[in-house]
């Protein structure tokens, strides 16, 4: 699970083109939206595409995404349960 969390941090920094944030700067329990990393709805779309492309997970319900994208911890738990790749 820790390897998956590290992989997610690296992918988020890469996919979202963060210049001032390194994977090691992100805590697994930090909020991804709002006061945490401060991601927005465009970033959420990028994360949805990443889940589909890298893990074979298709999200169709936006409410589902809100729960999944709370933190690296919640993303990793969801991916480990639902991944097809």
UniProtKB/TrEMBL annotation:
Keywords: Phosphopantetheine, Phosphoprotein. This is Phosphopantetheine-binding protein. SUPFAM superfamilies: ACP-like (SSF47336). InterPro entries: ACP-like_sf (IPR036736), PP-bd_ACP (IPR009081), Ppantetheine_attach_site (IPR006162). Residues 1-83 form the Carrier domain. It comes from Flavobacterium rhizosphaerae. Pfam families: PP-binding. It comes from the Bacteria.
